[in-house]
Amino acid sequence: MKTSDTPRTYKVKSFGCQMNVYDGERMGELLEAKGIKPAAEGEDADLVVLNTCHIREKATEKVYSDIGRIVKAGNKAGRDPMIAVAGCVAQAEGEEIMKRAPAVGIVVGPQAYHRLGDMVTKAVAGERGTDTDMPEDAKFAALPRRRKVAPSAFLTVQEGCDKFCTYCVVPYTRGAEISRPYTDLVEEAKRLVDAGAREITLLGQNVNAWRGEDTAGHSVGLEGLVKELANLPDLERIRYTTSHPNDMTDELIAAHGEIDKLMPYLHLPVQSGSDRVLKAMNRSHTAQSYLRLLDRFREVRPDIALSGDFIVGFPGETEAEFAETLHIVDAVRYAAAFSFKYSPRPGTPAANMDDQIAPEVMDERLQRLQTALGRHQHAFNQASLGKTCDVLIERKGRKPGQWLGKSPWLQSVFFDSELKIGDMVRAELVQAGPSSLQGRVLDSVPA
Ligand code: SAH
Ligand code: SF4
Ligand code: F3S
């Protein structure tokens, strides 16, 4: 790599989960602290950070096609942008990226990106660098303070995974489960609220495995942190994601009936409705134990919206086993869901299992599953019609004069009235579509 000028502008492109979005924002702040400014909309940046996801094959392939596109655009414009690959592909395939893509100057893993600034300095001097260390919790302490944030902000409280589901790369790319300290999180939440956040979503690969020590020295679970954050007067909504069924505690369930600011929404992936498949996935819950858990949430919070993740075509999945997944979908009546075709990931046990399912069988199952999930989502939206609720306005809609916000149940609600980002409006839900609703403003609570 040749020596280049210090980049003046940057762009971070984040793929994958919300934790990557959080990391992407933090990398942006870090670069800004170094005097590098965000590139304007539509402008080519001097430094492009690809914050990648390794969860499925398709997500991974994106990295190389994106690198190719950036190089081509750079050549055309007669310039040579600096490219950094961050995120989970960087962690999993760091050396390979360096070999395959000479245009990449920096490879930095998800636990090491607090060192990105130094790596940029070195790259300017012509030194390519890979950093995929996993120092426990070091990055959070080393990151700059947060400034301006959106009304709905993310806060990573827990990282990593010890569950080792047999299909999943996360335990390898994000490392072992760690919880960030209670006081650090309360401080960061305060700063987010001061910077304009009205809603905070607590993030973790296994967010409900979070544990910490409160200011009185008591060991508390996630409900303890939620309770403390609910005391922040200007914070109006709290959410958390993603939970694992096995880490769910009585205290966290009870919190849903006790804390008004904790929104009535729970994302709890099930993956499959078949106990044989769940066992082969190493999920350590059954369809029944999962359903019983959800019943307990519904007891304390009857209006709770439930969401889940599903994988179709796990090795060996029979038609009858897939039918059990459809069955659990009907039993739960999900308000929202994410569903995926199984993608074999290098280094995971499931990738070497017999009976890999043919792609056309997966396609067909995914279609049937998504039809069922779509039906329930639409029904959930229909059942919301006529309800009055608060909606937090997050952005402009696609049509002129249109605004988009989120209901307490995380539904997208559109408005045609004149509003602004960060408004919390009292609204009636007047029309329901398959994946969104139309609202009518009753009253706007001043920001
Ligand atoms: N920690 C969370 C989510 C992890 S990744 C949890 O345990 O639920 C998000 C989702 O991607 C998973 O819930 C799963 O549905 C899906 N996923 C993970 N690995 C996959 C793979 N190899 N193929 C297809 N989908 C996968
Ligand atoms: Fe992956 Fe399972 Fe961990 Fe979720 S719990 S991140 S699916 S290994
Ligand atoms: Fe993807 Fe890594 Fe998140 S693999 S889903 S970006 S933890």
TrEMBL record:
It catalyses: N(6)-dimethylallyladenosine(37) in tRNA + (sulfur carrier)-SH + AH2 + 2 S-adenosyl-L-methionine = 2-methylsulfanyl-N(6)-dimethylallyladenosine(37) in tRNA + (sulfur carrier)-H + 5'-deoxyadenosine + L-methionine + A + S-adenosyl-L-homocysteine + 2 H(+). Its EC number is 2.8.4.3. Pfam families: Radical_SAM, TRAM, UPF0004. The keyword Cytoplasm applies. InterPro entries: Elp3/MiaA/NifB-like_rSAM, Methylthiotransferase, Methylthiotransferase_CS, Methylthiotransferase_N, Methylthiotransferase_N_sf, MiaB_methiolase, rSAM, rSAM_horseshoe. The keyword Iron-sulfur applies. Residues 147-379 form the Radical SAM core domain. [4Fe-4S] cluster 1 binds at C17, C53, C88. [4Fe-4S] cluster 2 binds at C161, C165, C168. GO terms for molecular function: 4 iron, 4 sulfur cluster binding; metal ion binding; tRNA-2-methylthio-N(6)-dimethylallyladenosine(37) synthase activity. It is found in: Cytoplasm. Binds 2 [4Fe-4S] clusters. One cluster is coordinated with 3 cysteines and an exchangeable S-adenosyl-L-methionine. CDD domains: Radical_SAM (cd01335). Residues 8-125 form the MTTase N-terminal domain. SUPFAM superfamilies: Radical SAM enzymes (SSF102114). HAMAP family: tRNA_metthiotr_MiaB. Belongs to the methylthiotransferase family. MiaB subfamily. NCBIfam families: miaB-methiolase, MiaB/RimO family radical SAM methylthiotransferase. Catalyzes the methylthiolation of N6-(dimethylallyl)adenosine (i(6)A), leading to the formation of 2-methylthio-N6-(dimethylallyl)adenosine (ms(2)i(6)A) at position 37 in tRNAs that read codons beginning with uridine. Monomer. This is tRNA-2-methylthio-N(6)-dimethylallyladenosine synthase.
